[in-house]
Design brief:
The chain has 11 helices and 5 strands, in the order H-H-H-H-H-H-E-H-E-H-E-H-E-H-E-H. Helices cover about 60% and strands about 10% of the residues.
């Protein structure tokens, strides 16, 4: 078993020491980083620090040194985001810090995505995501999208205040088999149900899977409105997406 001392990057070692309290998560992350190239550890560290310009530069450096785009994404960007996700869940950091990290992830992904799409790496699946009609909250949805893209999904982001028709058009246009809806207001949550009804009316409901999420949404509410699944955070969104598309 790897030890924390096997990790070259001091910042990552300190982050693990200070913020990773659950033993199984800690062991998993130590194992992961102990096997990661030092340069990719530096990328993860810069991402956790929200230093987008540094992530941008280091990602380009890693590519120019011949490291595979997929490896940079998995062992640098996604691994770093894993620590960010845990710190956010356990209330060590809050939305502004997560947004800074998301910006850094985006800076790295800007170099990785074109390479992955050119290299014909098959996307894991295609997802249409949006915040429902009347609702302007998009921070959580954007985190989910970022993690989905990081996990290899192609995501068409419809943004906020998305009508039933816009969801239907996007699903048809992109041939997507999975729809994700987000809502943060109790007043807009019912629009998820209305969108599901619109898919039924158009005879399209059986062609797709539907997942929902957002702070006020519960698994019971999701089931009642006829969704196929509910995810409590960005990590479970990725798991759920994989599960629904494999059915
Ligand atoms: C930031 C914020 C805003 C920002 C939004 C900026 C933006 N670009 O998103 C602004 C200032 C615009 C705003 C406006 C309003 N807001 Co506001 N807002 C918040 C706040 C503080 C944080 C929300 C947030 O981003 N959370 C962090 C993210 C990461 O969490 P999340 O969205 O839940 O997402 C996670 C999971 O739920 C899940 N998830 C999310 N979506 C999906 C989708 C799928 C498919 C899956 C699987 C998972 C998933 O994964 C995400 C990542 O882990 C909350 C309070 C709070 N602490 O929650 C109030 C809050 C949501 N807002 C509230 C209100 C009332 C409003 C306003 C009506 C205020 C006003 N009077 O104008 C307006 C409404 C505007 C509109 N029409 O939408 C209330 C809602 C109350 C209610 N029960 O309905 C809250 C709870 C504040 C409160 N305590 O009163 N808001």
């Amino acid at each position: 078993m790897a030890e924390i001392g096997d990790i070259a990057n001091e910042f990552i070692r300190d982050e693990i020491d200070e913020f990773l309290e659950k033993e199984n998560e800690r062991n998993h992350i130590v194992e992961l980083f102990a096997q990661t190239r030092p340069l990719l550890q530096d990328i993860a560290a810069a991402l956790i620090d929200g230093a987008h310009e540094e992530v941008d530069g280091l990602t380009q450096q890693a590519l120019s040194e011949g490291i595979e785009a997929l490896e940079i994404m998995d062992d640098g960007l996604i691994a770093g985001m894993g620590i960010v996700g845990i710190k956010f869940r356990d209330n060590f950091i809050f939305v502004p810090e997560v947004l800074a990290c998301a910006r850094a992830m985006k800076a790295g992904m800007a170099h990785i995505e074109p390479i992955l799409s050119d290299s014909g790496v098959e996307p894991v699946g295609t997802v249409v995501m949006g915040t429902v009609k009347g609702d302007l909250h998009d921070i959580g949805k954007n985190l989910c999208i970022m993690m989905l893209r990081g996990a290899g999904f192609v995501v068409h982001d419809l943004g906020v205040d998305t009508s039933e028709d816009e969801f239907i058009e996007a699903i048809e246009e992109h041939g997507a088999k999975l729809l994700g809806m987000s809502a943060l207001l109790t007043t807009t949550m019912p629009n998820m149900g209305k969108t599901i009804e619109a898919f039924i009316d158009e005879d399209l409901r059986d062609d797709i899977k539907i997942m929902v999420g957002g702070a006020p949404v519960t698994p019971e509410f999701a089931e009642d409105m006829g969704a196929d699944g509910y995810g409590k955070d960005a990590l479970s969104c990725v798991e759920l997406a994989k599960e629904l598309l494999s059915e």
